[in-house]
Predict the structure.
Amino acid sequence: MVKCKCGNKGIYYQKYSNKYLCRECFINDVERRVKKTLGRNILKRNTKIIIGLSGGKDSIVMTYILKKLFKDIPDTKIDAIFIDEGIKGFRDKARKIITEFCKNEEINLKIISFDKELGIKLDDIVPNLDKLNIGKPCSFCGVVRRYLLNKYSQGYDYLAIGHNLDDFAQTILMNYIEGNIKNLIQFGKTTEGFVKRIKPLKLIPEEEVKLYADLLNLPYQKEPCPYSSISYRNKIKNILSILEKDKPGVKFSILKGYEKLLSIIDYNEKINRCKICGYPCSGEICRVCQWLKMLKVR
Ligand code: SF4
Ligand code: ZN
Ligand code: ZN
């Protein structure tokens, strides 16, 4: 039997630290890293956080740990927001999981739908993507989701997003490869006019998020979105796993290097307000309002 340093049976081999961890020590290790990521400036009295909860393992684990870490800190508020894009057979399932999870965890949940907010569901937009000059559903969905998350996080100190270490390493690498410097910077910084974003799982590899969820029997949606087109991201994922095999810890070093770079880059885009809805944007009218005009919804 392989043992954890505490003497109990090891259930997980953490390659980058070359350690076997037992169930207890693994759970503590994950929570300790989330605590470290948040730091004392966030883990304190009077902090108000809104969580973007999708129903996938990352956002569920993040919510569970945030709730646990803030449990004994007075005057704090942790609410969640769920965006229902209108994807039949997929989001309705997530909605059920989340509603029950938030009830059990005593979390105030706001459900916001594309249908109510925009007057149209994602399922009805997909056949019209050509009209908007958009190639993939995600390009529309991602922008609108961000728009709604920003809108409904106003009044909170932080908006918590469930990106794990793998998401970070993949996004950073993809943006480098494509030379997409603006996106690269925006991923790590909060745009002026928005509530500050925090990513509590940034030091937790994806497989550890999954293991944490499974060890604690947390409910989460396992099937992927029917519109997801992640082929390029998957290639990057494969490249990263080859690198990680050769040199465990490479994802951490990609993140570290990126953060060093961010700290010395002084980049501030001039931000206007959308003339129609008031949303911060670089042009005169934000992308969501432009699309809604083209779809003749607004
Ligand atoms: Fe939206 Fe794409 Fe995510 Fe599906 S995979 S929810 S379409 S961004
Ligand atoms: Zn142990
Ligand atoms: Zn607008």
Remarks:
- The radius of gyration is 20 Å.
